[in-house]
Amino acid sequence: MSEALMQHATQTIEVGSKSFAAAAKLFPPATRRSVLMLYAWCRHCDDVVDGQELGFGVVAPVAHDPRAELDSLYDQTRRAYAGEPMPIPAFAAFQEVALGSHIAPRYAFDHLAGFAMDVGQARYETIDDTLRYCYHVAGVVGLMMASIMGARDERVLDRACDLGLAFQLTNIARDIVDDAAIGRCYLPAQWLREAGIPQEEIGLPRHRAALAQVAARLVDYAEPYYDSAMTGIAALPLRSAWAIATARNVYRQIGVEVKRRGARAWDERVGTSKAAKLRLLALGGAQALSSRLRARSPARRDGLWLRPGRGAEAMAVGGLAVDA
């Protein structure tokens, strides 16, 4: 059963996220197993709610009931934490990592709340509204990943959350047109009005030049979160720091490419080549090594969004620590 779960998780990430799959290979074996198990659960939950398989294609457009599926995910997650047998591989994988790595239940349920925002067709008026969505679908995944790597200091967890926020802002910029095709928009309505783009016309070619400016603005907005995340890798074990720095570099490069392509950013899906991944992998290794030499002095998070449960002190202080 253990090997079958690992095989399931490995196949899931290789199809669902080629960018993160490359970086995940850098983790030490035990950490990599847990990371893949968590990813398999996140991917499963996303697919179940959207009626997809590994992020592609609608598999049950007629019988699919997102609200009922979401209720089932909440129930199965509660049962996983209760230690009940999990017949669904993704939930068996989640149970192993959640209980083994002491992932706080609030993180798992916060993640499911992000899917609830999609089911409820939430609208995003301001960038803070968009960041709240980013927290639920990606920032909290950073918190769970950091828990797997032994992080317990809340200030280190802030950096992990920041990386998740940056990833999701990049994803939103890359997928604007694809999201619009299925009736979703995560861009701040405020920004769209300023750009003169009616929300119901986001996907139309005549708005591409203006949309490119909005996407560039979002990519730029992610930069301080990518920078904040980099200060957190010093607190991680070396191989984990290498993996996280590499993932950061790869995702950040996607945003850079979206911005570079301008109005042509959505002609085809933006990704990174194998050569680029190798270069960014080497850079990640250098960054992980150099982080060992930096003093772990408190760093500030001035102006960055605060995750739920964090007081004003989290913005001002950012010392680094990790459990042995």
Question: Which helices and strands occur, and which strands form pairs?
Answer:
Elements (H helix, E strand, L loop, with lengths): L1 H15 L1 H7 L4 H22 L1 E2 L2 E3 L7 H16 L7 H12 L4 H15 L7 H22 L5 H21 L1 H6 L7 H7 L12 H25 L5 H24 L12 H18 L21 H4 L8
Antiparallel strand pairs: 1-2
Task: Specify the number of helices.
Answer: 14
- Which whole number gives the mean pLDDT? 89
Question: CATH superfamily name of the largest domain?
Answer: Farnesyl Diphosphate Synthase
Low-pLDDT segments, ≥5 res: 55-60, 312-324
Query: How far apart lie the N and C ends?
Result: 30 Å
Strand content: under 5%
Based on CA inertia axes, which overall geometry fits?
A: globular
- Main beta sheet: strand number and arrangement? 2 strands, antiparallel
Biggest sheet strand line-up: 1-2
Number of domains: 2
Say how many strands there are.
Answer: 2
Our Rg estimate from Cα atoms comes to 19 Å
SSE string, helix = H, strand = E?
A: HHHEEHHHHHHHHHHH
At CATH level 2, the architecture of the largest domain is Orthogonal Bundle
User: What is the CATH level 1 assignment of the largest domain?
Assistant: Mainly Alpha
Structural class: mainly alpha
Assign the CATH topology of the largest domain. Farnesyl Diphosphate Synthase
Q: Considering DSSP H and I runs of 4 or more, what fraction of the residues is helical? A: 55-70%
